[in-house]
Design goal:
This protein has a domain of 48 residues. It has four helices and no strands. InterPro entries: Homeodomain-like_sf (IPR009057), HTH_SB (IPR057667), WH-like_DNA-bd_sf (IPR036388).
Length: 97
């Protein structure tokens, strides 16, 4: 490799930061109940994870997570998360209004 060559494909422009392509992803929005229901219905119909992934444009791991939660809890609704809810002070609440 020449000093100017990059290990990244041509579609990635070169950057000054050495490992900028390894930045972690942020949290994403929750999937709608309709998408989760379509995933479970496809699974019940005998479709594979890869097939469902391509049809619904979701990662295979997401399809697997949806089906795993459905098998464990029997529902596709968003389950409550552990932890104490955030407290909003009256001052902060006034700014929200």
């Amino acid at each position: 490799m020449n000093p100017g060559d990059s290990a990244l494909p041509a579609s990635h422009p070169p950057t000054n930061e050495r490992h900028s392509y390894m930045v972690s992803m942020g949290r994403t929005k929750e999937l709608s109940k309709a998408i989760r229901d379509k995933t479970v219905e496809g699974h019940k119909a005998g479709k594979g994870y890869k097939t469902l992934s391509k049809e619904l444009d979701l990662p295979v791991s997401t399809v697997g997570s949806i089906i795993r939660k459905w098998k464990a809890y029997g529902t596709t609704v968003n389950l409550p998360r552990p932890g104490q809810p955030f407290k909003v002070s009256s001052r902060a609440e006034a700014r929200l209004v």
